[in-house]
Amino acid sequence: MSRAEEIRKQILELVGEYSREAFSKKPFVPGETPVPVSGRVFDGKDVATLVDSSLDFWLTTGRFAEEFERKFANRVGVRCARLVNSGSSANLIAMSVLTSPTLGERQLKPGDEVITVAAGFPTTVNPIFQNRAVPVFIDVELGTYNADVSKLEAALSPRSRAIIFAHTLGNPFDVKTVAAFARKHGLWLIEDCCDALGATFKGQNAGTFGDLATVSFYPAHHITMGEGGCVLTDKPQMAKLIESFRDWGRDCWCAPGKENTCGKRFDWQLGSLPHGYDHKYTYSHIGYNLKITDMQAAVGLSQLDKLDGFIAARKRNFATLHKGLEPLQDRYLLPEATPGSDPSWFGFPIAVKPESGVTRERVIHHLELREIGTRLLFGGNLTRQPAYKDCEFRIAGELTNADYVMNNVFWIGVYPGLTEAMLQYMMTSLGEAAGKK
Fold it and tell me: The pTM is what?
């Protein structure tokens, strides 16, 4: 062992010791200790892996990212995983890929339509606008809060080119029906799995049904890199397009720090460029720079070892809350899994029934005063958001349930950092908010 390797080993041992001291768990005090809806769950190994990667001082994508992409693709069950700097960027890349001229007649062009849901998160929809396509909004089901697949036919038009749906709060939508509809009509399907890592539908992993899928590694999600995301595909052609749009739009597919992988770096003839123009500076798409750092990937690689435990904890916490809140079903509409699915729950959605005489505002206020975090179901009815006031979109049918979500639904946490005492405190507080002891 060299002197540098010896010092590195000592540093990592000290990092583990530091983590045990600096991040030790504090006792839960009801009403004083915050009960957040989500948060990072990590240990000394995660911190040590982060420091280990920093000691390489390889500040862009590198060996940790390559290892993560390989292991993550294998974990989900797809051929290709490509890291990006956020889940929102993953959605942007996935939608942008569909605009590539290499896709021929199936290329997404300005004015083409993309079917999506009205009750969701903005960055599932924003890439449609950003690529000058037109969202076609359909309603959701109450209880599952996923796309109402009976509305798909009404949303279809001669301009339809793609579908992008999210698996809401980790609960898969009826992805087999949607995938069959997409195949029948020659539509691309993008699965937004940012909240749903580890969820399955009829035994098959979410993220393996569509042409592309996206994942987020923000601290709120199932595993974290701090910031980070991933685009998944089973199609090598799509993987090359993902890399191009992520890496400035370049035609070259060499990894950072490498060159002439194709063996003809100065022997291409593309566009109206002169023959032999450097392939590393030849651009086939209007792309971005959305790469991740190796330090982020290192944290994700360490977190990946904990994924199964994290998913099990989320399911256990969800089951505890659901059983404990069943006596309050005259006041609250409790969530339900989509038939045939095994959700990897991101949160626990609750609808405050208007006929109960209790309002969502009253419930949320009561919980927040008791340091229990809450969130609305993202943007509610997105067609009512100010950001889209002057944007072109189409609505297929009524958005009655999206409005119901906007007015009545919120969610609380199920993430692995919650303890049994916290869950009991949450249930008690929800009972008080509903006027029941």
Answer: 0.96
